[in-house]
Structure formats: structure tokens, C-alpha cells
Amino acid sequence: MTVISISGIRGIIGQDLTAEDYVRIGRAFGEFIGGKRCAVGRDTRSTGKMASDAVISGLLGAGCTVFDLGVTSTPAVFREVRKQEIDGGLIVSASHNPPEWNGAKFVLKGGRGIFEDELNQLLKIAETPKEGLKVGRVFLVEPRYPSDIVEYVGRGSCSGLKIALDLGGGAGSLVAPRVFRELGCRVMTVNGSPGVFTRDMDPTRDPLKALSDLVKSSGVDFAVAYDCDADRVVFMDSDGLKLPADYTLLLHLKHLADIGAMEDVVASIDTSSAVEQLVEEAGHRVVTSKVGEANVVRRMLEEKIKIGGEGSSGGLILSEFNLCRDGLLASALAAKAVHQSGGLKSIIEGLPKYYSLREKIPCIRENALRVVKILSEEEPGEKETIDGVKLRKPGRAWVLVRPSGTEDIVRISVEARSEAEAVGLMKQYREKIVKILQEG
């Protein structure tokens, strides 16, 4: 099944997506940006070269001038589009989906992702037969993204820090070790062969055993793991314990609070209450958005807020550098904070503690929407309905029920101060949802 959302187009190559589909996607996006300049990058999947060549062919047929960045991370393409004032960008990647998948992500002028209304326009163009053919040009370009990160974070600013990287066989394999060495770190790696995938593409799901074993045997100060296109990242402490995905955003915010530089934040509705508590205690506010990186960015632009994130997917967005989740930037800044604070544990000890659980129940979208409607109407107390329904409970606990945008499921997320309370909330609302579905 081809998945289409603001995160792009994804599917299994040869089953959902073919070379012809990529030509059509490239041609449509080229038309969408007016046949102007477009940057193209790809991750390390074996199908990447074929798909990239096909999408470039489509862009050239729309008259575009193409800057081929080769194998690179998603954030690198966003940065290149923004810094070089390019008219668009297209990334051949399925992000954290399995290796047999691939896809296409879209970047618009200014270096931001595509919004829902714009995606609908693009899809209409793709469905319209094209007549005639233009001839564009293609140039091979090496992005300056790695050097930009080193300059932004500070060359040598992590001097002596011992760091372990789980590169997941992805695009981060080509740039992350170099960046951390230039920051002054002593670097060790696992899964560092590009295109060789020995764990789940999504580091938020995988237990990261190889990284944990390396940490325990080598005495590193800090460890990180990336997905295939290096836009999401999770952290691991010096004991080899994988931290929740929300800590990608939380560690940065805690550092800002410690140095008195906290600002307002945009966070997706499924982000931990720890973010809200930390920001509000520092005298600032959290603005919530729908789940989805582009939705967070849209709210950031509307509210003129510089910091955003998707807690549950290990995402940090800093608008002054990139208008997308940037795993390498987030991990570089976290490493700097760990170095300056004298250790990761000292940062974590000052963070608010919450316990979260996430489950999903199979059902068609129509029934998932019915579940959300009934809970919105019948549940007492404070509610948010910008994406499904979020039910606020005492002590910053909450329950979020929302239809998936990509699967026939309803997602349930809960968070509370204790594991027992979270387990109780999950049991209570799972039973309610099953009852609603059975009554339908």
C-alpha cells in the first residue's frame, strides 16, 4: 500500500512504487515549483540510485535545473535549499521504514516541508497527463551541511568527550563521525557500513543492543542512534540505557533553562508533559500542533517561534538552522550540553519525570473517527481536538486517541507521573475504545 502524507510518499519498491512512478513524481514536483531549481538527495537504500535517477529524469523533463547531492541526509537537503535559496528539494527516502521501502520527501522554497494543501495540489498535478517535454540541466554538488553544523555548534566545543554512534547503515554513516571528530569528540561507531542494515530502521523502536554493548564495554560518556536519513535520533546514557524519544527535545530545553535562554516552544500534541512543565517553569509557553513535522513547522512560522519538536519521534527543530527535524544537529548540541554540564546524568536528574505508553487497535479509518467523536463528546474535563482528542487528567496526565494517517488503526497514547497510573489509564481507555468499536 502506497502511503501518502505530508511526510511524503512511501511504499515498497516494485510493489507500490516503480521507476515510472518516480519519473512522474519528479515531473509533477518540477511543474509544482515552476520548472526552476531543485536539490535532490537520497539515503543509503539499495534502490536509492534507481529512484534518484528516475526522479531527476522527471525533474529535467519539467525544465528544472537539478543539483544532485548524492547520498546525504534529509536535513542536509533542507539546509541546502534554504541556504542556497533553491526553489525546491526532493529527497529519495522512506526514513525509518524497512529497507525494502523507499519514498520521496518534498522541500519547498525557504527550506520547509510541504503543507497538506500544497501536497493536494502536487497530487493533482501528478494525476494530470503531461504533453511536451522540456530539457533541464543537472549538476553534482557536495552539501556544506556538515561544516555548517560544526560552525554552528562550535569547532572543538566537545573536546575530550567520548561518544558512541549507532549509524544504522544510513546516511549519517557518511557525515556524523566526521562532524563529532571536528567538535573534538573521541568517536566510536557501530552499524557504520552505508546500506548494511542490521537493526530496525527506527531507533525509537529498536532496543539498540549493539550500541548498548559498546557503551558498557568502552566507557563512553554519551551515545546516539539515527534512522536511515538521519532526521530522527535517540540518546543513550553512559550505562547503556536507551532514553525515551522525548529526551531529544528535553535535553536541549533543559540546557536552555540552565543557562537562562529558554524561549517559547511548539510541540506536537503527543509530546511529553515534561516539555510543557520545563518550559512553563522557565516562564515561557508551549504551543501544540498536530502530529507531523510539517505541522510543527507551520505553527512555528505562524507563531514566530524558533524552537519546535516532535517528542515521540525523537525530533528537534531549530528554525535558525533548519526547518525540519535534524538528528545530527540535535545530537551535536546534546553532546555539547553533556560536555559543559559535566555529564548526562546531571542533566537528566533535573528533568521532570513522566511515564508513557503507546498502543494501537486495528480498525478502519471511519471507525477510528467515530471513536474520536464519541470520546470528544462524552468524556468530561479539559480536551484538545486539533489531532484526534487529547483528554487532560490531574497532575499533567493525559490520554491521546487519534486515527493514524497512514494505517487502518486508532492510536492510544497515555502519560502519567507513575507507571501504575499510566497502565491504569491505558487499560481504562483501551476497554472504552474496544466497546465503542464493538457497538458500531
Radius of gyration: 22 Å
Return the domain count: 4
Give the % helix.
25-40%
Spans where pLDDT lies below 50 across 5 or more residues: none
Helix count from the secondary structure assignment: 14
- Assembly context of the chains: single chain
CATH class wording of the largest domain: Alpha Beta
Q: Report the strand count.
A: 21
CATH topology of the largest domain: Alpha-D-Glucose-1,6-Bisphosphate, Chain A, domain 3
What sort of overall outline do the alpha carbons produce when their principal axes are compared?
globular
Mean model confidence by pLDDT = 95
Considering the protein shown, what is the CATH homologous superfamily of the largest domain?
Alpha-D-Glucose-1,6-Bisphosphate, subunit A, domain 3
What class do helices, strands and sheet pairing give? alpha/beta
Alpha-carbon distance between the two ends: 26 Å
| Sheet of most strands | 8 strands, mixed
> Can you name the CATH architecture of the largest domain?
3-Layer(aba) Sandwich
What amount of the residues lies in strands? 15-25%
Describe, in plain words, how this protein is organized in 3D:
Helices cover 37% and strands 23% of the residues. With 440 residues, it is of the alpha/beta class. The protein folds into 4 domains: 3-143, Alpha-D-Glucose-1,6-Bisphosphate, subunit A, domain 3 (Alpha-D-Glucose-1,6-Bisphosphate, Chain A, domain 3, 3-Layer(aba) Sandwich); 146-236, Alpha-D-Glucose-1,6-Bisphosphate, subunit A, domain 3 (Alpha-D-Glucose-1,6-Bisphosphate, Chain A, domain 3), CATH 3.40.120; 247-348, Alpha-D-Glucose-1,6-Bisphosphate, subunit A, domain 3 (Alpha-D-Glucose-1,6-Bisphosphate, Chain A, domain 3, 3-Layer(aba) Sandwich), CATH 3.40.120.10; 355-439, 2-Layer Sandwich (TATA-Binding Protein), CATH 3.30.310.50. The strands form 4 sheets. Strands 1, 2, 3, 4, 5, 6, 7 and 8 form an 8-stranded mixed beta sheet that branches. β5 and β6 form a beta hairpin. α8 (247-258) runs parallel beside α9 (273-281).
